[in-house]
Amino acid sequence: MNTVEARSSVRLESADTVRSAAATRWAKRTFDVAGALALLVLFAPVIALAAARIHLHDRGPVLFRQRRVGRDGEHFRCLKLRSMVVDAEDLLPDLQTRSGHTEGLFKLRDDPRITRPGVWLRRFSLDELPQLVNVLRGEMSLVGPRPPLPTEVSAYTDEMHRRLRVRPGMTGLWQVSGRSELSWDEAIRLDLHYVDNWSMLQDLVILARTFTAVMSGRGAY
Question: Sign of the CA dihedral 134, 139, 142, 147?
Fold first, then answer.
């Protein structure tokens, strides 16, 4: 093979790689939109019932909007059914101080900010159903790394920034591997493994494991 033929071969292989990557992204996005629409229709009665219970409990807002970091560092408002008291974020610094928390993901097994409706919402991860809207907007995916807070990203190492190469997900490898029972380092390791080894088959396996994880309630607090 002469030099011209070799260069042509490289260009063709590069073009094939680009087309393959584009087709893969299209397939994942199509799956996300179709799945999110189907799940929204399926869980619409559950969302409506939960919204009514949240509002009747304390007359506060039904939705909780929190700034998160998505793909390529883009910020977006992550949606959840509110499971905590209205001023939960104002109470957070004091809770972190009293618990001795210094870095990573902050979770309390018996968080005093969680409301009575919030207990069962979190038990079955129903508080995250509004994120289906985030999926339809293109801000999230059905499966992917957990969407981090800006404060978490500010503490990322160069390696950790690989988490931001893909859309964050409603569920993911760390969520089906123990959720809140995992350490910060374990969660990061699992998310990076997902990013580096992504495939549609892996997404389907994670979605199947999500049902088992939700029903077991392991790490749900």
Answer: negative
d(CA 88, CA 142): 27
* Joined tokens for residue 2: 């002469």
Q: Which two tokens stand for residue 121?
A: 């919402």
Q: Is 69 helix (H, G, I), strand (E, B) or coil?
A: strand
10 Å Cβ neighbour count for 190?
A: 20
Could you report the per-residue pLDDT of 188-204, keeping only the tens digit for each? 999 999 999 999 999 99
The residues facing 79 across adjacent strands are 65
Spell out the alpha helix ranges (H) of the chain: 3-58, 88-99, 116-123, 131-137, 150-153, 184-196, 200-216
> 104-122 b/e with 16+ CB inside 10 Å = b?
ebbeeeebebbbebbeebb
Helix (H/G/I), strand (E/B), else coil: 68: strand
For the stretch 79-129, pLDDT in tens is 999 999 998 888 888 887 777 665 656 677 788 899 999 999 999 999 999
Measured distance CA(201)–CA(21) in Å, rounded = 16
Measured at the alpha carbon of residue 36, what is the angle toward residues 33 and 39, in degrees to the nearest 5?
Answer: 150
Q: Which residues pair with 68 in a beta bridge?
A: 76
Residue 55: C-alpha distances to residues 74, 122, 130 (Å)? 31, 16, 16
DSSP letter assigned to residue 171: E
